[in-house]
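DM from R.C. (forwarded with permission)

"hey, sorry to bug you on a friday — could you get me a structure for this? deadline for the figure draft is monday and I only need the backbone to look sensible"
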Amino acid sequence: MIQHLNNNRLLRYAGLFTWGVIGLPLLVRTVTQADLGVPDPAEEGAFLGSALRAWLAWGVFGLSYAWLTRGLGERRIGALDHLLVALLAGGAIAISYYSQSGLGSILLMVVACVLPWLMPVWLGVALLVACEFVIVPVYLRGLDFSWLEALLQASLYAGFTGFAFVTGLVARQQAQARDEQRRLNSELRATRALLAESVRVNERTRISRELHDLLGHHLTALSLNLEVANHLTSGTAQEHVQQAHTLAKLLLSDVREAVSQLRDDDAIDLGATLRPLAENVPALRIHMQMPEPFLLDDPERAHVLLRCTQEIITNAVRHAQAEQLWLRYSLAADGVHLAARDDGRGAEVATVGNGLRGMRERLAAYGGSVVIDTAPGRGFQLQLQLPLSAPAERVARAAEGARVQPRQQSRDPSGGSDAAGPSIEGVRHDPRLSGR
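My reply, with the result:
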């Protein structure tokens, strides 16, 4: 069962278990004192008041810990969380004060374990040092320790607390490294998908070019020679020549149609390329909206769009502290549009770092642009526009997923002109046909 729990949940359950175990000595102390009784009614009232306050602090600690560790490492930490951390530390000290024991110092170790996940390292260290100083008077008053005994006790627990803090810090760094590795793997899968699409498109283009330049060229030459032979023969031989001429034209028409089909499917499927980016992103839920199918003819522009999407996701995770990211892609006559927004903390002014600067440079190289809008508490909004070199009808074909071609005409045995077929002028320069 433990193997199916991630480290964050395991840390949470371990802390809750320790908190529950701390309740046992409190319970034993309360029951024991109640059974023994207190001769002085005033002392009895003071004892009951201290016991109730200790139990209240114990309950506040457990509730605060359960709230703080929900989705640990997967959600944004806010001001309320920092307030609860202070309440958590105060609850631990209060347990020691009202129970007149060192139980609170044990709970401070639990606090130290989760502090690296909840606040900066320097702030966590400062809080723990302050707690160790505060708990020294608790030892002096509650346990009747001397100054030396109180300092030694506090130093002992401070060592354990520091060890717990470093353990939590290492666990957090390892979790961040794993999250970064998963994010990089997602980017690698997306890049590999784009590379595979580019290789497929280039291979289909090469095959169509070879069919057009070689097979189409020679079939055109064969058709011309059969047409000449048709005028030089008569009778039964002429009928066979005419049939061969018709078959040559049909074969040439089939080659032209095959070339057209290969070129029709030369677009890159951006949907299959971009979707892996939204997988396994730590602490961020990505919503992608794109046309179906989402096709682009230019591999270089597809690569630019991929890199821009990667940069937007990286900024949302590292800088915006966002939990949700919405990406909406659309195709229009002037190119590809990407509208991105997150629910992060935002900023007064959008500071252009190396990532955003690189994004602008990539888009500017193709005549594109990016507009950034942000405000505190409103997250970041980006509007990207990437022009396409293809004319408007090819953009419309990419949006619809199919290009309209007069393929029925390409099978016309009359051998009419076709953009995919070789020209007759090209046949005249074939050295194998000179002298015919």
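R.C.: lifesaver. Residues 2-145 form one domain.
me: no worries. The chain is about 65% helix and 10% strand.
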